[in-house]
Write a structure and sequence with these properties.
mainly alpha, Four Helix Bundle (Hemerythrin (Met), subunit A), elongated, 144 residues, single chain
Length: 144
């Protein structure tokens, strides 16, 4: 049976690219959504506030959208980073931290205005995505 040799420091990949995004998403970002549900009175089963039904639907939707943005990207990012981390674990782990910080900052900016969404540290998440993408491409080309 074929085996995969896990490099030194691969634990950093797991911590920064699996554990950290899960904690950021389920505790930090989802916690903000739960607080916003109470503040803006958007009850379950509504995923988003409905204009005309919920008085501050747009304000709630901005918080929810910031969280959904991370969930939508994580399904591609996490598996890609696990593979890329086999080649360059420390670089990919650093990218994972950038991804988490960027997602947290993105949600913070998204709740303010369209002009603030990509200000501050929000774009840092793309450092993580691009790090894993470049390493994954670098790994795959010689296998062709």
């Amino acid at each position: 049976m074929p085996s995969i040799e896990v490099p030194a420091h691969y634990g950093a990949v797991i911590l920064c690219n699996v554990v950290a995004p899960t904690l950021v998403s389920s505790i930090a970002l989802a916690g903000r959504v739960m607080s916003a549900r109470k503040e803006f009175k958007v009850e379950y089963p509504n995923l988003y506030g409905v204009p005309g039904v919920h008085k501050q639907a747009d304000d709630f939707n901005k918080v929810q959208r910031g969280h959904q943005n991370m969930l939508e990207g994580a399904m591609f990012y996490i598996p890609m980073s696990l593979v890329a981390g086999l080649e360059h674990p420390l670089a990919v782990a650093f990218g994972g931290l950038c991804y988490c910080v960027g997602c947290f900052a993105y949600q913070s900016g998204y709740t303010k205005s369209a002009a603030d969404r990509n200000k501050g540290l929000g774009p840092a998440k793309y450092i993580g995505v691009l790090t894993s993408l470049v390493v994954a491409i670098k790994m795959s080309v010689p296998m062709l």
